[in-house]
Amino acid sequence: MLYRVEGLVIRSTDYGEGNKIVTLLTPDFGKQGIVVRGAKKLKSRYGALAQLFTYGDYSYYKGGTLGTLNSGEIIRSYQELRQGLDGPAYAAYAAELTDRAMDDEAAAYLFHQLLAFQTALAEGKDPQIVVCAYEMKVIAAAGYEPNLDECAGCGRSNVPFRFSPPAGGALCHSCAYRDPGALELGDGAWRLLRIFAGMDMRRLGNISVKENTKKQLRLALRRWMDTHMGLNLKSRGFLDQLEKYGEMLSPDIAAPPSRIKPQPDSDAADDSGEISG
Ligand SMILES: [Zn+2]
Fold first, then answer.
1. Given a cut of 70, is residue 254 above it in pLDDT?
2. Domain 2-77 class, CATH top level
């Protein structure tokens, strides 16, 4: 049977002599595995369709588990994401995370979220923020959303919380004994976690976030995923190294001159920015 779908390449592996198998994330059929014959040959018309991050229109024959590409058109190649270090690291991580964490019921939702993630990255939005927002979408789509508004121990709301992955999210100070390793997050990190939980990636605007807040967000989300989802992603090691390296350089040294902004002294002038736009 011949299928025609829009899809995003979330995995691409070599297969036999000169061929590739791609995993497409599609809105209607979940994940689809397709053999692209001759994809590795230099003159292949379909080589670009088999590249990671490509968004395209794919026609393929399928009888069993794997399809075979018949023809295709690139809608957007996301070439920007294959350049430098940040793009490949973050986009490959998001692709692998999606591949490993999603079930087919969430396919349509995650398709649009991942497309918006790749677009935000390609537009040069802060990858550390974009990836945290996307991680929250994957976590929610997989059914592991943390409770951010009520204490997991006693149910109280509107009190200061710590963030406890093993306890299920927010933990008030009276219940903090349940998890001595619970994270102390600043107001900025709590605010962004709540925003990310309720937000569609397509509405993510430009946002400027303090380094310390980014670090807290990253720690909270990664520790949450490690506790509840245990994915052990290959792309994560490289991303962790890249982020650690970025931290070693102070922001003033790391940022090119045009990006240096005065750092606020107090938390009063915390993370500002526009989420929807
Ligand atoms: Zn409590």
1. no
2. mainly beta
